[in-house]
Every structure is written in C-alpha cells, then in structure tokens.
Specification:
The chain is of the alpha/beta class. It has 25 helices and 14 strands.
C-alpha cells in the first residue's frame, strides 16, 4: 500500500494543506515546529481514528475552531486506488471511503484496506521517531509474540482481548503474594477454621488414629480397585486373544506364503479369453480353406490367366502403349543432349562463378590501369634519373669549391679586421667637425673677441684632425685580395647551393609523383587480387594473369553451356522416369528383360483381352468378390493371432500350456490374498502385535489362570478392608457427636468446600487461558525464529558485520558480537541500540509483509547516527522502497543528499 496524497482540512497547525505526488522514498524536510510530527499524527488519525479524550494522545483539533480532519489517497491496496476521508463526528471521527469506480463505503471496510492491525501495533512496527528507538531494552519474548500474533491472523484482536480478560480474572481470584483476591482471603478463612478444628481434634487421640487408619485403608482400597480393574482388562484381552488365536495362526501361515508372491501380471479372465480366441481362430481358418478352394476353381475356368490384370489396368495399359512412340523420341533427344554435355564437360574445369558482362568490364578496366601505370612508371623513372644526374654534377662542383674555401670562422675574423680599419679615420673626422660646430655655437652666443679666438683655435685643431684622418694607415694588400677572392668563391658556392635546393625540390616532387603512381599500382594490384579472389583462383596474379583469366572465362562459358543443356535435359529425364515408374507400378505379370518386351507383351495381351472381354467379365467379377473375402478373412485371422500373442505376452509365457499353468497359480494366489484380507480385517494391528508375543495358545491360558488367582486374592483383601472401614466410620461418628467439635468440623469443611469451588473456577480459567495461549502460539508458530533470523541479517548489515546474532535469552533480547561476546541492549551504545531496534522493526515488517504491505513512516529517527551509519541506513531504506513505501520526516540538511530533488518536499 502506498500513500500518494495527503489532504489536511484541519489538523493541529495545518489548515487546507495538500501534499500530492508522494513518491516511494519521500523525504519531508522542515525546521523545528514546521509541522512534521503533526503530519505523521494526521496519517495515524486518518487510518486508525482520532484519539479520544480519555487517551493520552493529543487530538490536534484546530485552535481556531475550524473543520477537523482530512483525507488520504491510497494506491496498491486490495481495493485498488481508494480515498479515505475522516472528519469530525463521533469520538474517533466519521469515515468515508471512496473507491475508484465511484462507490462509497463506511469505516467497516477500512480493515479490508489496511488489514487487521490496530494503532498501537502500527506505531510499534511501521511508524516511529527517536523516542520509539530508545526502548528496545524493554522488549521481551512476550512483546515479540504479541506483535506477531496481532499481525498474523484475522480476529487476533478478539483473542488478545479474551486473553487479557482471562488474565485479569485469574489475578482477581488469586495472587501468590496478594491479600484482596478471593482465593487468598478464602485460604485465610480455611487456615483459621483448620487451626480451630485441629485444636479440637487434639482433645481425642483415638479420633486422630481412626482418621489416619481410615485414610490409609481408603488409599489401599483405591489402589486395589485400580489393580483389580487393570487385571480384568488384561483378562478380557487374554480371552479375546484366545478366541483370535486360530485366526492368527491361519493369518501367519498365509502371510508367510504371500511374502514371496510377485506382482500379478496374469490378464483378468485369461482362460476364458484364450478359449474364445482359439474358437475364433479355428472358424477363420475353415473359412480361409473354403475361399482358397473357390479361388482355384475360378482361375482354372479362365483360359487367359492375365484377364484380371488387363481388366483392372486397361486404361493405364492403353496410355502406355499409345505414348511409347513419344518415349522413344525423348530417349533419342536425351542421348544427344548427354553427348553434347559430355563434350563441354570433357575439357572444362569447374568454376565457382558464372562469367558475366560485369566481369568483362572489370578485366578491361584492370588492363587499362596496367597500361597507364606502366607508362607513368617509365616516364617518372626517366625524369628522376636525369634530375639525380644533375644533382650529382652540382654536388661535385660544390665539393670542389669547398676544398678551396675558408671556413666560416676564419672568413668572419678577416671580415671584422678589414671593417675595423675602415671605421677609424671616419671617427676622427666626425670628432673634428663636432668640435668646430661647438665653437661656432659659442661664437654666436657670446659674440666677443675671446670667442673669436676660441673659434679660430678650434678651427685649426679641426683642420689638423681632418688632415690626419686622410692619411691612411699602412695595411696588407695581399690580405684584402685574398678576402675578396674568398668572398667571390663563397658567392659562387651559395649560388650552387641554391641550385641544389631547386634540384632537391624537383626530386621531392618526382618522388611524390612516384608515390602516387605506386599507390595507383597498389590499387591496380588490389583490384587484380580482388578479381582473383572473386573468381576463387588459388594462384597469385603475375604477368600472365590475362591468360589465366581468359582460361577461367573459357571454362566458365563451357560450364554455363553444359548447365543450360542440363536444364533442357532435366524435363526430358523427368518425363522418361515418370513413364518408367508408371510401367513399373503396373506390375506386369511376366519378367521381360527390357521395356520393349513389356510393351510388346502389353500390346498383345490387351488385344487378346479385348477379343475375350465378354466371356471373362462374369468370371472376373466372381474372382474379385472371392479375392476380397479372402483378404478380409486373412486380416481377421492375423488379428486373432495377434490378440492371442498379446495375451501370452501379458502373462509372460511362451505357449498355451504354460498359460494354463500360470492361470491355475494366479487363481490360487488370488484366493490366498482374499483370505488374507479377510483375516486382516478380523485381526487389528494391535491384536496381531499382542498375539505375536506368545509362542503358543497354552502360554496364554497359563497367564490367564495366574491373573484369575491374583484377582481372587484382591477381592478377598477388599472385603476385609470394607469391613474394617465400616467399623472405623462407626467409631468416628460416635466421637463426632460432641457439639463444639462437630460445629468446628462443619465450619472447616464448609470453608474448605468454598475454597475447592473457587480453586476449581481458577483452574478452569487457567486452563482456558493456557488453551488460548497455545492457540495463539500455534497461530504465530515459526514467525519468531524467522523474525530473529531476519533481525540478525539486518543488524549484521547495519553494524558492518560487528554483530553476528540477535536472539532471546532469559526472556530478553541479547546480541552477540563477532568476538562471540553477548550484550543486553542497554549495554550497547545509543546509536547501536537504535540500529538493533531498526533491524527488529524491519524483520517484523518482512515477516508480516504479505498480510500488511503498509508504508514505513520515520520522524527523525537517526539523529545519533554518524555519517557511516547514516549511509548504511539510507542504503537499506533505498532497498526497502521496492517493498514498502518510506516517508521520512527530518530537520537535518545533511540527510537531503540521499534523496533526489523530486523526492524532497520542503515545508
């Protein structure tokens, strides 16, 4: 059962609230006082009724005085989809149930939807909060059995209430340490009256002795009476055994004979059936002899012995004679075609494929590719050879120049020396011009004699520097000439390198072209290989591939011609074969050596038959009738023989004599079995067992005499005791005539009688309670061990294997750790204790799930769990949602990560 919608009209703080599309694993999140516990209490109230004012559970009526109640939408119930509505009315509310088909029912149908379960049981198993997880140490075997019974059978509430009523009645009658119960008070009265009575009895010692003697003789008399009854029962048994002894002896003898008897395989009424079959067989044999004699006479009357054959097959014989000419013509055509086929198949080899126009086109395309590739290969090889020769010539020139050329390091050093010598005079000229310009600037600024003098002096210095700059420094002309020569060689070398790069580029282009040509050659070879593979030619293609393919084509064409001729030959051969089959099927009554002889016989015979047709018609008709009767008699005779053979086989014998012997044996065995069954009906199993303990009938008689003697002695002793008791009773009556003693005795026995009556009532009530408890235990037999086994599995999973067993010991729950150490629940940590309680709840849910597939409702039940335990708990709830809907109320943000966004409802 699943809750898919919650509609609150008015309950606690909620008014006109609607929660739709509740999933199989629904979390309802809200801060403290958001109304989570109120929604949980609302679900309880709708399913089981509003709490009455006498109960301690709050009714949660709206403070504003508005409407009170709401509805739940339930799916997957025994009634399908239903809406349960409970509104304010009587104490527990007025209920209406709306079915999917529009029908409306009252509260009496609610148990058909949720089952025979009350609110306390539902809250103890399916609905809980953190406080419900903290009382596991208080559970005892009684609580387990109560929950299992309360959820295990229809009408269990009545059984539980009756048990409670009987228990209260027992406690009202008697308590071991009580004072107010009726039996406790009556015991006190009996004890007081007994003390007064005993005090009075002490005054007469003889009275005491008489009572003791009386009780002893009564006890002895009872003992003797029981012994006497036992002896008489045994005597009756012995008398019965004596009467049954002859029957037992006969039964024993027949049993010994019947032991080796095998299972009867003889057919019922075998002899009668055999004689009947023999009579029928003789009758059919006589008829067979008569019919065979008549058949011989008719054959002798007919001059032409094959008249019946021609009469029966005249149409077929006519057809075969008329079509014989066509048969001969087809025979000539067939031989001609076979010679032609043989001619084509003589030199032709078998080819897997038929030659087609597409194959011709493919061969032509491959030839064209081959010619193009050969021409391109020739051209590229020639160009590549010429270019490589040019490259070799250039390389020789470069090598020759490099033998006379300086290396780069020396060339750079010489170049730097020459450049430095050219730069020095230029620098001095620049300095002289610079000084002169500075002097001119000073003259322009100051315009004085001293300025003129300074300018004049600077001019002289500048002239000197210029003259000095124009005078070249001595250097080596040979070095300059050598450098210029090397510079020219290097330029020529660089020119050759450039040409070499151009030739290398040309070679690369030619090699790229050659690569493309090689790829084209590979494609050509691949296509040629594919052609050979298609034709299933086992040879590898070479230069002579055209001849191989041409040979293959010639063989294929010959095979095709042979196949076409074979197709023409097949209908001819089929017609010839059909003609031959019809001729063979005709069963010609002679043995000629060829078809020509058969046709000649048929032609002559048919002519003779038609000439004598009128004369032989009547003989043929009679022959047909006799033949038909003869066949029927033979079939009947075979059938009779088959039935007789089956009869012998069923009896597992080889001939009729053995069959008769077996029949006599089976008849005798059957008589033994019938007699044995009759004897077993007269001898009950216990009687047979008792008789088997005696070896002979005399032993039984001897034991009977012994018991009769013992019985006589007991009766004599009983007579003596009876006389003694009469005397003692007279003396006791005489002593009890005193008034005080008699009153005390009467009072004691009166109170004792009242106590016995109360005790009898208590005993009857106790027996009724025990019977009821036994009935309840039988109703939930097997559930408690299964519950503990499931609880062990869940607890082992939740504690990650730290605890291996949950069991009841000393009427209390205990658990066993993997170190084989036992603990009571109160000895566990708070979180572990809560895990144990959850394991027991889930075990109870599994056991009763078939009858009560109700949702699990949890209100922040895991606040003491660490992250690892929370993960294990959520994984377990994820698995449970496939069998029970889970609704989880929480105010902790971290629990939201275990649910999808669609399954989270925020208040």
């Amino acid at each position: 059962m699943r809750i898919t919608s919650i509609d609150i009209v008015g309950y606690g703080k909620w008014s006109d609230a609607h929660f739709n599309h509740i999933s199989d694993f629904q979390v309802i999140f809200g801060e403290n006082e958001a109304g989570k516990s109120t929604i949980m209490a609302f679900i309880h109230s709708i399913l089981f009724g509003f709490p009455t004012r006498q109960q301690s559970i709050p009714r949660m009526e709206p403070k504003n005085g508005g409407p009170y109640g709401g509805r739940l939408t339930l799916e997957d119930t025994p009634m399908g989809k239903v809406i349960v509505e409970r509104l304010k009315g009587k104490a527990t509310g007025d209920v209406r149930i709306y079915y999917g088909d529009g029908q409306v029912a009252g509260e009496e149908k609610l148990t058909e939807i949720i089952g025979e379960i009350d609110r306390n049981t539902f809250e103890a198993i399916f609905s809980f909060d953190i406080h419900g997880l903290q009382n596991i140490h208080q559970w005892k075997k009684k609580e387990f059995e109560r929950y299992l019974l309360a959820t295990g059978t229809t009408g269990s509430d009545a059984l539980l209430k009756t048990a409670e009523i009987l228990q209260k009645k027992l406690e009202a009658l008697f308590k071991p340490s009580g004072r107010n119960p009726a039996i406790n008070q009556q015991l006190k009265k009996v004890k007081d009256s007994q003390l007064a009575f005993q005090e009075a009895k002490k005054q007469n010692a003889k009275y005491e002795l008489l009572l003791v003697g009386k009780e002893e003789e009564r006890a002895r008399q009872t003992e003797l009476q029981e012994e006497k009854t036992a002896i008489r029962v045994e005597l009756d048994t012995l008398n019965t055994l004596l009467d049954l002894w002859p029957i037992y002896q006969e039964w024993k003898a027949l049993s010994e004979k019947a032991v080796p008897l095998t299972e009867a395989t003889f057919p019922p009424d075998g002899i009668i059936r055999l004689e009947h079959l023999q009579l029928r067989e003789k009758e059919w044999q006589n008829q067979l002899i008569q019919l065979e004699e008549r058949q011989k006479n008719l054959i002798n009357k007919n001059n032409f012995e094959h008249t019946a054959f021609f009469a029966e097959n005249e149409a077929e014989i006519t057809y075969l004679i008329e079509t014989y000419g066509a048969y001969n013509e087809r025979e000539l055509q067939q031989k001609s075609l076979e010679k032609e086929i043989k001619y084509y198949q003589t030199d032709a080899k078998q080819t897997p494929m038929k030659w087609t126009k597409e194959l011709d086109q493919k061969v032509l395309r491959i030839k064209e590719l081959e010619q193009i590739n050969k021409q391109q290969q020739h051209d590229i090889q020639l160009e590549l050879k010429l270019t490589q020769e040019s490259e070799e010539k250039l390389q020789q020139k470069i090598d020759k120049i490099e033998t006379n050329m300086w290396d780069n390091k020396r060339f750079q050093q010489e170049k730097e020396k020459i450049n430095s010598k050219e730069k020095t005079p230029g620098t001095k000229s620049i300095v002289a011009v610079g000084i002169f310009l500075v002097a001119l600037v000073v003259l322009v600024i100051f315009q004085s004699i001293w300025s003129v003098a300074v300018v004049f002096l600077v001019a002289l210095i500048s002239v000197y520097l210029l003259v000095l700059t124009k005078t070249p420094a001595p250097s080596s002309n040979q070095q300059i000439l050598a450098f210029l020569e090397q510079q020219k060689i290097r330029q020529e070398w660089q020119q050759l390198l450039s040409e070499m790069d151009i030739i290398a580029s040309q070679i690369a282009q030619l090699e790229e072209r050659q690569s493309r040509i090689n790829k084209s050659q590979y494609d050509y070879q691949s296509e040629l290989n594919h052609l050979f593979d298609t034709l299933a030619i086992n040879e590898l293609p070479d230069e002579n591939w055209e001849a191989i393919v041409q040979t293959y084509k010639e063989h294929s064409e010959k095979n095709q011609l042979a196949a076409e001729l074979t197709l023409k030959l097949e209908p001819l051969a089929e017609k010839q074969h059909s003609y031959q089959l019809r001729l063979e099927k005709l069963a010609v009554p002679i043995e000629p050596t060829s078809i020509e002889e058969k046709i000649s016989f048929l032609r002559q015979g048919l002519l003779y038959y038609r000439n004598n047709l009128t004369e032989n018609a009547k003989l043929a008709e009679k022959m047909e009738q006799v033949t038909m009767q003869l066949n029927l008699v033979k079939q009947d005779l075979l059938l009779v023989k088959k039935e007789k053979s089956d009869l012998l086989e069923q009896a597992k014998v080889n001939n009729e004599d053995e069959f008769r012997v077996a029949a006599m044996r089976v008849k005798q065995e059957q008589q033994w079995r019938e007699r044995l069954i009759l004897l077993e009906a007269q001898l009950e199993p216990d009687k047979r067992l008792a008789l088997s303990q005696f070896s002979a009938q005399e032993v039984i008689k001897e034991k009977e005499l012994q018991l009769e003697e013992k019985l006589r002695k007991i009766e004599l002793e009983q007579e003596n005791i009876h006389a003694s008791l009469a005397a003692k009773n007279h003396e006791i009556a005489t002593l009890e005539e005193g008034g005080t003693f008699a009153a005390l005795m009467q009072d004691f026995y009166s109170e004792k009688s009242k106590l016995q009556q109360m005790t009898r009532e208590w005993t009857e009530t106790k027996l009724a309670l025990q019977i009821l408890q036994e009935t309840m235990r039988s109703l939930q037999e097997g559930k408690l061990p299964k519950t503990l086994a499931l609880a062990t599995d869940y607890f082992n999973h939740l504690t990650n294997g730290n605890y291996t067993k949950v069991y009841l010991q000393e009427n209390r729950i205990q658990v066993e750790s993997k170190q084989v150490v036992s603990f009571f629940p109160e000895e566990l940590s708070q979180a572990t204790k809560e895990q144990l309680y959850l394991a027991i709840r889930f075990a109870l849910i599994d056991v009763i799930h078939k009858d009560f597939p109700l949702p699990i409702i949890i209100d922040d039940g895991f606040v003491h769990f660490d992250s690892a335990r929370m993960v294990q708990m959520m994984q377990l709830l994820q698995k449970r949602k496939s069998t029970n809907q889970v609704i989880f109320f929480t105010c902790h943000q971290e629990t939201r990560k275990y649910f999808s966004s669609e399954d989270i409802r925020v208040l």
